[in-house]
Amino acid sequence: MKRIILINLFLFCTSYLFAQNMDNEMFSLTKIREGVKSKRVGSYDKTGGNNDRFTNIKDGEKMVIMNVEGAGIINHIWITIAPKADKVNRNDVILRMYWDGNSFPSVEAPLGSFFGNGWDETYDFVSAPLTVAPAVGKSYVSYFAMPFSNGAKIEIENQSGTEISAFYFNIDYVEMDKLPEDCGRFHAWYNREVTKALPEGENEWGTLGEQGNNLTGDENYVFADIKGKGQFVGVNYYINCPTTMWYGEGDEMVFIDGEKTPSIVGTGTEDFFNTSWSPKELFYHPYFGYPRVNNETGWLGRTHVYRFLLSDPVYFDKSCKFTIEHGHNNNLTLDLASVAYWYQHKAAPLPRSFSKEERKPLPAIRAVDIHLWRDAWRNAHGNKRDLWGNEK
User: What is the pTM of this model?
Assistant: First the structure.
C-alpha cells in the first residue's frame, strides 16, 4: 500500500511540474502557428498502387531523395532498405545533405553510423533525436530539426558493391515564408582513425610503468573541428578495441574559440558518456547510452556509446575543436569512428570525406589470435611446459 501511495505521489508531482513548465514540448504543441504548413517528400507509389519504394539503385549510383526550394525545417526522417545488411552494408550507403543551394554538403556520413549503427552491424538503438527501430535495426529515424532558408537537398550514394533493391523513405518538413534569423544549420560529420600507441607502448593503468601527461591534446581523436558560431549537440562513438584492457581512460578535451588550452576537460570516456567504472552492459537513455557492447573477455571488441547534449550544448562564437584521448595520454591503438552533430550560424563545408576503403573496419581480434600471442610469448620465455602467463 505504501509503495502504491509513493508511486502515485511521484506521478502527481511529475505531472504537476510538467504542467507548470510552459517551455516543455507538450505545451509548445498547443501554440497555433502562423505561416507554417506541413509538407512531405517520400517514396510512395505515385500511381496510387502499393509499390511505395525506389528500386534498383545500382552500385556507385547517387539518388536524390529530397530537393525542395524556399524556406523550411525538416523535423522527421524515416528510412528502410532492402536487402538486409548482410547484403547491403548500411555503412556503405552514404547520406549527404545540402542547405541553401550550396554545392557542398553540410551532412555527410554513412547511413548506419549517422542513425546509430556502427561497422557492418545492425542492432536496435534508442535515443531522443535518433533511433534504429526494432526487428534488429530495420529502419532509421531522425527527429533532429534541420532548418533551411533557400532550399534543401538530400541524396544517398550506394557504395555497397551490390544493388539496393528497395529504398523506402518519408521526409517531413514545415514550409514557411521566412526562416527565423536565429535558426542555425544542422551539420553532421563522420570521422574514422586507427590511432597510434605511444612509442613506449600501450601503457594503460600504468601496466608498463609510470604514465605521462597530456596537456595539449595534440594526438587526441577528433569528433569535430568546427569553424564558425554555433553549438555542438552530440556524438555517436564507435570503438573497436584490440585488447582486453579498458579502452576508456581517455578524457574529452574541448577547445573553444581557438584556445590553446582546453576550457572543458573530462575525467574519462565513460564519464563524458554519463556512465562510470568501465561499464559493458546495454543501456538506453534519451540522451546517452551503450546500445552495443562487446561480449568478449574484458573490453576486447566493439562498443558503441552515444551522448546527445540537448539540454547542455557546447556553445562557441568562433570555433570548436571537440576531441577525446584514446586511452590516457593517447597510449592505445584503437579503431575509432564517430558521427558528430552540431548547428552553425550558416551552412559550412565539412573537413573531409572518407572512401569505402578508408571506412573499412579492422577485423575483430579473436580468441585464436590471443592464443597465438601466448604461443609467441611462451617461445620467448624458453617454452617451459609449466608457463602460466603472469611471469615477467
Answer: 0.92
